[in-house]
Amino acid sequence: MPNCPRCAKSFRTANGVTFHLQQPRTACHLWEREQISFSGDPTLEDADALALRSPNWDAEQTDGHFEVPNPEDVDYDVPEIREREKPVEGTEASVPTTYAGHLCRGEQFEGAAIVYRIGDTFLRRFDMDRHSFHRQTNMYYPFANLGDWEMANFLLQSNLSMREIDNYLSLSMTKKMPLSFWTAKELRGRIEDLPKGPCWKIRIVPTHHLTTSPVELYWRDPLECIEALFNHPFYAGKMDYSPFRVFTAAGRIMRVYSEWMSSDGAWELQVKVPAGSTLCGVILSSDKTNVTNVCGGKVAHPLLISLANIRMNVRNKASSHAFLLTALMPIVKFIHPVPRICSVLEARLFHACLDLILEPLKKAAQLGRMMADPLGNETLHQLGSIRCDPDDVEAYFDACARFRLSGVSHPFWRNWPLSDPHRFLTPECLHHWHRMSWDHDVKWCRRALGAGELDFHFSLLPPITGLRQFKSGITKLKQVGGRTQRDVQRYLVVVIAGAAHPNVVAAVRALMDFRYLAQAPAITEEGRENIAAALAEFHRYKHAIIDGGLRRGDQSGLVLEHWEIPKLELLQSVVPSIPQVGSVLQWSADTTEHAHIEVVKDPASRTNNKDYSAQICRHLDRVEKCRMFDTAVRLRGTTEAGFSSSAIERDEDRSDGEVGYAVDDADEAGAAVLNDLWAPKQSYFDIAAKHVASTALSSFPLRTFTRGSTAFHLNLRPSLRRLSVDSAAEKFAIPDLRSALGDYLALHSCHGRRIRPFGRTRQSAQDMPLPFEYLQIWYKVRIQQRDYHDRTSTASTYTIHAEPPNGHWKYGRYDAAILQVDEGHDWPDSGLTGHAVVEVRLIMRPRPPRGTNVTWANRFPVYVRRLDIINVELATHLPVLKRAVRASGSYFGDVFPLDQISSFAHVVPRFGETADKRLTYMNACHASQSFYLNRYFDKDFFYATNR
Length: 947
Hints:
- By secondary structure, the chain is an alpha+beta fold.
- The strands form seven sheets. Strands 18, 19, 23, 24, 25, 26, 27, 28, 29 and 30 form a ten-stranded antiparallel beta sheet that branches.
- Strand 11 (289-290) and strand 12 (299-300) form a beta hairpin.
- Helix 25 crosses helix 26.
- The protein starts with 13 loop residues before the first helix and ends with a helix.
């Protein structure tokens, strides 16, 4: 009979032993960690030259797949084992999710995510700390009180050096504060008494080849990092525990792929792991980054880790801190006369270090925590077919060349169950798509228009508040990053429209459609077809790029008549990968690149420029202790204030029937604390909801309000507090303002808050008397919308300007917007149907006579001029607009309620082959009569209008 390797207890089956070892309250639970021994140096005299040892796993002992152990085989008193709620046979599982605002139907993987009610929650672990006895009387121990802790937390997370902290604490005013510490050294000593997270370790990695310096590896247990994320209260209700499938309709015809757990790949992995287990997806990201920018040339190579179960809209926010630094990979130089062999040795060292770091995850997979059987794959077969000594690096590298392999003899994933490059190497937006756009698309456009003309077109674009404006063009930009590349993509199609050959424009536009469609956070089967169609359309028009001599070598300048572009070839794998990994957007390196600032660059800037790695690790350890301690004391504070935090530590009271997209019903007070700490940004929707719920309003009408999927925000104080109607008509060049206001008031009295149509004949006279004489006027309004695919999230905020002529804007600044004109069509579900493109000319509020109370004074009217859609251009797929005029020749304008505006719109003049040199971005719109509606300035706007 199988025995426990630690206590020698007998069990009926091997699965019983595995279950026994997984119990967190037994001493044998630590056996697994004890077996992961990293003491001693691996022998590097054989074929495992740079691959560190890892235990072998006998697949024959598993009988195919793991099974849930029989309770009779387990000699452990399990208080309660309850499987998450499953649907009744023959019915659909409840997967409460939406796609583009519509409720979807779905099914969950039955028999997954069994919960054993013996785990410790975040607050329980906090209460089990060695200083928990002192915290019964002083929650902030080792600090004296809340003020003492807040001062310590501020000083430790500031940019102050130890000397500067000492200088601050030595000030006479500071000495009057009742602090428990008076030096920076004493402060850091107290931080060491806070509850700890995953601990840092250092290891000297031996190598078979000489290096210029010792190979030092700083790392911490990745399994502990995963457990810290899995256990964190902020992610409660923001994680998926079992795979699910979502369909747009009850007929289950159209699949929707979004989160990793919604993919077929996660479903297939769940089939292979033990019944009842919870599948945890590990995300690893590694990339070199500069530590010093001006001098020294110091480089760090961080390895970040995260959990794929955390939903992408949370995981991809930097404020969520969902990516933890688990290692600083060594950066050394090998001493070898052949440079390419040095690269091979560096790659082998990288895999050897990963072998060491990821050993706990491999052991967990082998013991059945996540996965069952290892999976053979093509790459390992290729490596096995190479009959050459790996120690003979040059010969081995030449033998690998025919398979296009890097020369690494023992890749880190070779003994990781169910891992294979074709699964875990996903398409990546930042380096694959955005970089390709800058390296190729922009160069084609520059050669098509000429560098000077392309720059001039970019300089004429109407500016968008919050987005980069290219006043000097783009061809002379230096050190272009991912954000700049995306900003260029917003305007590239509209800039070359009408100036380059139509087929060239169509090819560039097709690639842009591909990128935008593939970046959707939720993709249906129809969406996959559209992505494939966009790529096929590029291939249909790409010949025009070579025919026009636009594809040339950077060095030779000669025309290239082939399409051997690796990043272009990678686009072919996007559509097939979506069912396997879900939305490709969630695997973008944007978040991890930004995390380098938090986990490497900022800590390095606070060092003494010596021994960067050690000081970075110490700094991160202190910051994480402070962050977790702050979270714990605030949550505990809500409990002492009379609030219940049971939703966060409700392992014994909560029904765990909700999985997948089921939202944890966390207590409002605890959730508010967590959101304040980990997601402090508030949307205008939240502000408007608070204003509506408040009984003591400081101003009425509300300056922040919502209608449908759009939120509006006006400054509390208007730009012009008192201006007569006639003066406003003259200042803003609106001769029919008085008559338009008369029609507005007449319709308001008849229809109330109903949607007003556009195009009615003017009924009021130019000199019609109004029940008011003065207006309050705002020069701008901020608009925020719900995310197109997830209506619980908010999208970017845009500012609509309606400014009269001034010293800078000679003709004024008037932005465009989308106006709803049909009550039966809502934005963004209906797209442009039932909506009109307008130019906002005036944002106002009538001032009623003192002492009167009228309903029309509680709304904000806007005067707009209509832009008619003439046609949709074939090459660009952009709507062509023209100013609407009345029979008299005057512009077609009218007054509408502000909340009838649905979205910001970016309208760009049509420049033609050559733009008029007298134009600037300040007068281009005023001097033009024909425009493009730029669908690419915002992805959500693109999705709404891509119908």
